[in-house]
């Protein structure tokens, strides 16, 4: 990416927020890879920490009781820990094998991370979290999942078979001080994805998607077909459309005419999978250490790739600035999901008979779950788009006895309403986002 060499060459001048004599955070004289030239104002040190601390307190006091009462962690997302609030912003790369995911990370870091493998065949066989650390090392998944200061404890629900295919790669790097990068195995084609992986690949992808600030979908001009498995993976990103960016990598391997055809075919394929009326933004470029190949596309192509790469770079640079807003956004989204989940569970409980025929009624409720969702939607005036996936909910629900669920507790719902209506706006009013 044009200009990245110069920026990273100035490692020693990477900015850090350092306290001055008055206890306020100021940008040190060193230039930050992520900061703009306008970021020279003082930032009171309690701003960001107070917003995050405020969210932690609100979660424990008002949202967590609702989640615990209605088994939210089993149906939707595991309970949050302090490490989930304190975690650095994350970027996840997804794509079919040999689309250049690991090479993209190597290009960003200007070096290979510990344990990286690059090749034309499916080489990355595990989920790798690349993060900042004092020295270069690989930490096994079972170890990283039980560390209290890491936001990966929720991955234990996917079992030992997944944790053996998960690792954390640590290395000292100025870019990793600001973001954490998630490298993923290439999505396979055919039944191999579903039957030969020993863990729920789509479920893991969905878990990371909820935690990530940006999701990059990488495509190769020679691999435009979106397999059924990749379609399922993209479908698991539902609800996180604002985080998705599409990258057409290795674009300098085809000439201008072919590139136009490839771009059109990719847009057509994405239109069938993403199911949105809006056109998805596609970044075109060649993200590797070699100079752009001008032979197929000529100087016009080179100029196009450089502009596209600059646009993608600016997206990446803005991640830390938007991290605080993103944290609040995800928290509010979670609170709304927990409320709807409570309405669903309490409604199903209310439909159960007091004495006889409980098993038959439960089976009928599970079979007609779509109709029950419509009833709840009309009763509480809820938007249909906020309801969970019916198939997934039905699958989890079949392992429970509906009769043992809690009835609706208006006090818990009211506490979450108060949090959304008063507490969070008050928190934001007192502590404005310092990066604006």
UniProtKB/TrEMBL annotation:
Domain of life according to the entry: Eukaryota
Name this protein carries in UniProt: EH domain-containing protein 1-like isoform X1
Organism: Nicotiana tabacum (Common tobacco)
Gene name per UniProt: LOC107807506
């Amino acid at each position: 990416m044009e200009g990245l060499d110069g920026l990273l060459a100035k490692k020693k001048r990477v900015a850090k927020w350092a306290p001055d004599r008055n206890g306020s955070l100021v940008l040190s004289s060193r230039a930050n890879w992520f900061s703009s030239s306008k970021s020279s104002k003082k930032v009171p040190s309690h701003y960001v920490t107070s917003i995050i601390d405020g969210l932690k307190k609100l979660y424990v006091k008002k949202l967590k009781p609702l989640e615990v009462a209605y088994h939210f962690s089993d149906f939707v997302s595991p309970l949050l820990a302090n490490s989930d609030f304190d975690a650095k912003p994350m970027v996840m790369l997804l794509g079919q094998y040999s689309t250049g995911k690991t090479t993209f990370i190597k290009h960003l870091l200007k070096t290979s991370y510990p344990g990286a493998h690059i090749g034309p065949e499916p080489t990355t066989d595990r989920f790798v979290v690349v993060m900042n650390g004092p020295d270069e090392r690989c930490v096994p998944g079972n170890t990283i999942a039980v560390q209290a200061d890491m936001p990966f404890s929720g991955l234990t629900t996917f079992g030992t078979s997944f944790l053996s295919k998960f690792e954390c790669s640590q290395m000292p790097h100025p870019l990793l001080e600001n973001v954490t990068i998630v490298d993923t195995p290439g999505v396979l084609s055919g039944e191999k994805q579903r039957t030969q992986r020993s863990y729920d690949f789509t479920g893991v992808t969905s878990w990371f998607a909820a935690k990530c600030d940006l999701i990059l979908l990488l495509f190769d001009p020679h691999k435009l077909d979106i397999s059924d498995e990749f379609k399922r993976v993209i479908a698991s990103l539902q609800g996180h459309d604002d985080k998705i960016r599409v990258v057409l990598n290795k674009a300098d391997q085809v000439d201008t005419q072919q590139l136009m055809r490839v771009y059109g075919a990719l847009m057509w394929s994405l239109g069938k999978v993403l199911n949105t009326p809006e056109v998805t933004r596609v970044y075109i470029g060649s993200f590797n250490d070699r100079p752009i190949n001008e032979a197929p596309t000529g100087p016009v192509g080179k100029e196009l790739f450089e502009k596209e790469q600059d646009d993608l770079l600016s997206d990446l640079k803005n991640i830390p600035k938007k991290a605080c807003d993103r944290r609040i956004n995800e928290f509010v989204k979670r609170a709304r999901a927990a409320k709807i989940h409570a309405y669903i569970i309490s409604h199903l409980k209310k439909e159960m008979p007091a004495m006889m025929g409980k098993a038959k009624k439960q089976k009928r409720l599970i079979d007609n779950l779509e109709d029950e969702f419509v009833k709840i939607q009309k009763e509480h005036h809820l938007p249909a788009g906020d309801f969970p996936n019916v198939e997934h909910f039905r699958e989890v629900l079949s392992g429970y006895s509906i009769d043992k669920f809690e009835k609706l507790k208006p006090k818990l719902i009211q506490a979450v309403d108060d949090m959304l209506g008063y507490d969070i706006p008050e928190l934001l009013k007192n502590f404005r986002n310092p990066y604006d």
